[in-house]
Write a structure and sequence with these properties.
Elements: E1 7-14, E2 17-24, E3 32-35, E4 49-50, E5 57-60, E6 62-65, E7 71-72, E8 78-81, H1 85-165
Length: about 170
Amino acid sequence: MLSVTDIHRVIWWVWSGLIIAAALNAQPEERKFEHYTAQDTPAWIDATTATPMAPEEYPSPAKNSNRNDLRNEESPGAIITFLSLRDKIKWAYAVYGVLALVFLYSIRRLEINHRQLRHLAELEHVKAEKLRELDRLKAHFFTNISHEFRTPLALIQGLIQQLLCREFTGDVNR
């Protein structure tokens, strides 16, 4: 890795290869950055792109200089590892597979939750129907019971009223 303290390094993957950029905290436009890869060309180049190479590790020494052309010749550079397309595809398929499983699991959980909610709503509906039926039966029962008590009591009360008013014309002993 670059060990120069005043340089920030950024590595981006782009379609055509690898972009290597170096920037100084102050006045980055006046910095120069050179690198070489032994596989590309043995000469130092100040190009910022490298073509994609065979999958392996490549040491990439780098030099930089400031606006006064003071160079850092001791930079160890970076070790760049290119993965083969097959390795990248394996990881991509693994990630896609995990995402697909998470998606399917989420859909299944939503379906189960929907079924449970529907079942609970159905149970609540049945419970409400049973409570209404119970209330109707109670009302019918107490209406009948009150009728059974009221009829004899009304007869007895009517006779007592007639006796008190001396309007009773029948046999009292009967």
